[in-house]
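FORM 12-B: Structure-to-Sequence Request
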C-alpha cells in the first residue's frame, strides 16, 4: 500500500512539474537530509561551523479555516487562534523560536505574513513596519489576529514565492518559518513553489500546529526529489512538546536540525554566489 501511494505521489509530482519521469530518476542527485543532532548546543555549534554569517528570518502564519477544528485534540477543542487567556499554539511557537532562532538573524528585522485568510492569499501582519525581533512578532500577532477572517482555500505557495523574492532582493540566506495546520487545499502549487525555492539560498521550516494528519508535510520533508537540495523541514510541534522533558529545547532542536546541512548544500551548489 505504501509503495502504491509513493508511486502515485511521484507520478503526480512529475505531472505537476512537466518533467520526464525517467530523466528525473536517473539524473537527479537529491539526497534527504537526516536528523543527526541530539542536543541543541550541538546543532548551534554546527550552524556556526558551516559559516552562517548573514541570515534573515521570515515568518508566516496560517489563517485558514482549518484552525477552527484543528484544536479538537491538541487545544481543548478551541480554535488554534484563540487569543484570550493563555498562550495558543501560535504564540507558543513564536515565543520558543524567539529564544532559539532570533540569534541567527543578523539585522533583527523579521518580515511577517499571514496566509490563507478569507479573500487574501498573503498579507503583511503589520502594514506600517516590519517587526524587530520576535517580541514585536508576538505583539503584531496579538494585535491583528482577532480581526482576520479565516479562509477556505489554503496554499503555502504565495508565502514561499514572497520569501524567494526577499532572497533575490537581498542576495542573502534566509530561513522561512511557516506556522501552519498543514491542511492544504492547493497541494500542486505548494509543491511547485517548494521545488522552485530550492534554486535559492532559502531554508523552509514548517511548524505543524493542531491535530494533523501530517503525512503530506512529511512527504514534503523527505521526498520531492526534483529539488536541488532538501530545503524543507517539518516539525510536529505538539508531539515533540508533549513528549519531551525540556519541550522548548526539543522544539528548538527539531526546528534547527537541518539548517547546518542545508546551508552546506547551499554553499556547495554556489546558490549564494549565483545571487550576485
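FORM 12-B RESPONSE
SEQUENCE OUT:
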Amino acid at each position: 500500500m505504501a509503495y502504491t501511494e509513493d508511486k502515485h505521489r511521484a507520478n503526480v509530482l512529475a505531472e505537476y512539474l512537466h518533467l520526464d519521469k525517467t530523466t528525473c530518476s536517473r539524473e537527479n542527485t537529491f539526497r534527504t537530509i537526516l536528523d543527526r543532532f541530539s542536543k541543541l548546543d550541538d546543532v548551534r555549534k554546527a550552524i556556526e561551523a558551516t559559516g552562517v554569517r548573514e541570515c534573515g528570518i521570515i515568518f508566516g502564519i496560517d489563517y485558514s479555516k482549518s484552525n477552527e477544528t484543528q484544536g479538537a485534540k491538541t487545544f481543548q477543542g478551541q480554535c488554534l487562534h484563540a487569543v484570550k487567556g493563555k498562550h495558543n499554539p501560535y504564540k507558543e511557537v513564536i515565543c520558543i523560536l524567539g529564544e532559539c532562532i532570533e540569534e541567527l538573524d543578523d539585522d533583527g528585522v523579521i518580515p511577517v505574513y499571514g496566509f490563507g485568510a478569507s479573500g487574501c492569499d498573503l498579507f503583511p501582519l503589520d502594514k506600517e513596519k516590519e517587526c524587530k525581533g520576535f517580541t514585536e512578532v508576538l505583539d503584531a500577532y496579538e494585535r491583528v489576529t482577532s480581526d482576520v477572517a479565516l479562509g477556505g482555500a489554503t496554499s503555502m505557495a504565495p508565502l514561499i514565492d514572497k520569501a524567494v523574492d526577499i532572497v533575490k532582493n537581498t542576495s542573502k540566506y534566509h530561513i522561512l518559518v511557516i506556522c501552519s495546520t498543514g491542511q492544504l487545499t492547493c497541494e500542486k502549487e505548494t509543491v511547485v513553489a517548494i521545488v522552485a525555492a530550492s534554486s535559492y539560498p532559502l531554508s523552509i521550516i514548517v511548524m505543524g500546529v493542531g491535530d494533523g494528519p501530517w503525512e503530506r508535510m512529511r512527504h514534503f520533508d523527505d521526498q520531492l526529489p526534483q529539488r536541488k537540495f532538501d530545503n524543507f523541514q517539518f516539525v510536529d510541534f505538539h508531539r515533540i512538546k508533549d513528549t519531551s522533558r525540556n519541550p522548548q529545547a526539543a522544539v528548538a532542536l527539531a526546528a534547527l536540525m537541518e539548517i547546518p546541512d542545508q546551508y552546506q548544500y547551499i554553499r556547495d551548489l554556489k546558490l549564494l554566489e549565483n545571487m550576485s
